[in-house]
């Protein structure tokens, strides 16, 4: 898709003397530099002072600014203010990451990204976001797509390509030029609290095929694609937003599993990789002292020169951008002061320090000044660090020149027409339909004839989940002839043990069909088991929908029918209370029913498991590739 582009305003690109020492470049100069980006990036860096070099290596976030005087709630940043504009200009900031609270609608986003570019000191900004698809999506009105594991379940790499192309084209239309995705972590640990369905699979070959197809789609739209999270976040049981996980693989295991997708993607043209806040003692077992406590700990990969430089640069030969995961995440921020963290990550080999500190008001800008003073001192006293910052800034500027970032989308109508277009939403539905996986179907419980399901009991942990299920049951009702369908909803903590069996039996006895939507069951899910047992004893049809990870059936015995939809309710702590993947639940609910008028399923399940499902003993009970069809 051809983007409608306009030249950045002359206020940004005219040749003007900079008090910091470096001139802004004319549009003509920038277009000339794009012909030989590496040569001219080095030339640009040679004109920069230390502050300008540092600025190019920082990517800031501005999620909120100040508080509402009446509610004391943080005020989301949806347009640039004078303080933020001055900060970007005065500190020569090289990039900005935007989150869901920044990205309300197309008209607002275009104005916001254009204003950010207007504020840039000398070169256009890298403007990034996490539009992974599935759970982690930032555009409030964008096309989400069903998520990575759903793409893999569909079995068609072209679906991943389409997802990448849609995400890339929508981001580009809005002035966002850098996407932090796809996730290429190999999710072999089904208790992983943070990756799960963000991963394509537990199979390296599937990840290789899907991730590079997605990457091709993103690149076709002219957007940078950052693979994450190096050196691998798939075999951990701790969320790095809160603590520092350890990857316990041997060196040989790690190279065969976690390293493989990154190596494959590098060979196929990836231009950026994001580091993970994990430890990998089989590659670097250095112990360091936490600066915010007395704790001695394994060095995080984000701070590890043997991992970022030794493996990525020297062993594999990657010459693209290395960006850290957010440095304000608990794994880093709870253990290390911000100045140390930025210095350590850059020194280890990162080119961009992402979210080095949180600035939410004018007073906190002093923290940024403190960071610059700290890094300038390190550059002046350590020639090796000075060269490392120059190298990082050169790589950032080279990428900006390669991308032609003197151009910026400003056509609001084009953005409005592109983002969440009818064509894009149709593709989203098609991929969601293809991903639904029927894991179990004892006695051919499915598909259900709606005319034989006049009383449906909907059970889950959350009212919002029940409401979505009920919404699409009513859609099915309308689609299949408006047969009588009474829907009752019950919110129940499925992992607890507090249901009254007699009351539950009475409720189930009145129902023709029970739909129980589970969300990451672990261990003994007592209430869920009680619901299944009573439904079976009463001879009632029960369908369990695994709404996030497909592993829930391992924790409940006797389930008659189970489908995996790979996403319904958000879990990402950075995602601003987002709570639904409607395409997934729509497709899942339609999969349960036939159309009585035709006798055919509304959506015959064709997805296959892209992971092994194991029981608590670690035995595989539903293998990779498993599916049931009708």
From TrEMBL:
Keywords: Glycosidase, Hydrolase. The keyword Hydrolase applies. InterPro entries: GH, Glyco_hydro_3_AS, Glyco_hydro_3_C_sf, Glyco_hydro_3_N, Glyco_hydro_3_N_sf, NagZ_Beta-hexosaminidase. One of its GO terms (biological process) is peptidoglycan turnover. It is an enzyme of class 3 (hydrolase). GO terms for molecular function: beta-N-acetylhexosaminidase activity. Residues 54-389 form the Glycoside hydrolase family 3 N-terminal domain. It catalyses: Hydrolysis of terminal non-reducing N-acetyl-D-hexosamine residues in N-acetyl-beta-D-hexosaminides. The keyword Cytoplasm does not apply. It holds the Pfam family Glyco_hydro_3. Its EC number is 3.2.1.52. Belongs to the glycosyl hydrolase 3 family. This is beta-N-acetylhexosaminidase.
């Amino acid at each position: 898709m051809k983007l409608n582009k306009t030249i950045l305003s002359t206020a940004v690109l005219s040749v003007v003397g900079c008090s910091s020492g470096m001139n802004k470049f004319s549009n003509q100069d920038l277009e000339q530099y794009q012909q030989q980006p590496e040569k001219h990036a080095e030339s640009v860096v040679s004109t920069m002072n230390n502050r300008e070099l540092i600025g190019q290596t920082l990517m800031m976030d501005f999620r909120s600014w100040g508080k509402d005087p009446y509610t004391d709630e943080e005020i989301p940043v949806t347009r640039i203010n004078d303080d933020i504009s001055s900060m970007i200009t005065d500190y020569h900031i090289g990039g900005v990451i935007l989150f869901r609270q920044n990205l309300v609608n197309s008209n607002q986003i275009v104005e916001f990204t254009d204003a950010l570019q207007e504020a840039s000191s000398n070169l256009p900004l890298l403007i990034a976001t996490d539009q992974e698809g599935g759970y982690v999506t930032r555009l409030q009105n964008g096309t989400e797509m069903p998520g990575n594991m759903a793409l893999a379940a569909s079995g068609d790499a072209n679906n991943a390509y389409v997802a990448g192309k849609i995400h890339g084209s929508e981001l580009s239309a809005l002035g966002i030029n850098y996407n932090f995705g796809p996730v290429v972590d190999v999710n072999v640990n089904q208790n992983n609290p943070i990756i799960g369905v963000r991963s394509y699979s537990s199979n390296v070959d599937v990840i290789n095929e899907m991730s590079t197809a997605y990457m091709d789609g993103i690149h076709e739209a002219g957007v940078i694609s950052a693979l994450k999270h190096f050196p691998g976040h798939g075999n951990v049981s701790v969320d790095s937003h809160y603590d520092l996980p350890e990857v316990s693989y041997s060196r040989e295991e790690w190279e065969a599993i976690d390293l493989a997708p990154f190596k494959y993607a590098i060979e196929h043209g990836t231009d950026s990789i994001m580091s993970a806040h994990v430890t990998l003692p089989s590659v670097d077992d250095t112990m360091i002292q936490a600066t915010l406590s007395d704790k001695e700990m394994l060095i995080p990969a984000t701070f590890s020169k043997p991992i970022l430089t030794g493996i990525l640069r020297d062993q594999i030969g990657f010459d693209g951008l290395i960006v850290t995961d957010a440095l304000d995440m608990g794994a880093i921020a709870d253990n290390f002061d911000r100045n140390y963290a930025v210095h350590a990550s850059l020194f280890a080999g990162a080119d961009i320090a992402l979210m080095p500190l949180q600035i939410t008001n004018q007073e906190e800008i002093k923290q940024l000044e403190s960071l610059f003073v700290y890094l300038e001192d390190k550059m002046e006293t350590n020639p090796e660090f000075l060269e490392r910052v120059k190298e990082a800034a050169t790589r950032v500027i080279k990428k900006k020149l390669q991308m032609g970032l003197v151009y910026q989308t400003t056509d609001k109508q084009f953005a409005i027409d592109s983002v969440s277009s009818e064509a894009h939403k149709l593709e989203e539905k098609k991929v969601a339909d293809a991903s639904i996986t029927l894991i179990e179907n004892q006695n051919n419980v499915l598909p259900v004839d709606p005319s034989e399901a006049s009383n449906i009991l909907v059970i889950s942990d959350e009212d919002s989940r029940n409401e979505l299920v009920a919404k699409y049951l009513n859609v099915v009702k309308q689609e299949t002839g408006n047969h009588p369908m009474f829907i009752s909803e019950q919110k129940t903590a499925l992992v607890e043990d507090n249901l009254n069996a007699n009351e539950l039996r009475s409720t189930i006895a009145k129902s023709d069909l029970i739909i129980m939507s589970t969300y990451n069951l672990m261990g003994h899910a007592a209430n869920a088991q009680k619901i299944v047992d009573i439904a079976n004893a009463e001879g009632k049809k029960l369908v369990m929908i695994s709404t996030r990870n497909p592993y829930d059936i391992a924790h409940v015995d006797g389930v008659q029918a189970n489908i995996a939809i790979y996403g319904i309710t958000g879990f990402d702590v950075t995602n601003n209370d987002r709570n639904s993947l409607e395409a997934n639940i729509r497709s899942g609910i339609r999969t349960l029913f036939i159309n009585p008028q035709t006798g055919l399923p509304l959506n015959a399940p064709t997805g296959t498991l892209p992971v092994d499902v194991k029981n608590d003993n670690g035995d595989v009970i539903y293998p990779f590739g498993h599916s049931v069809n009708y």
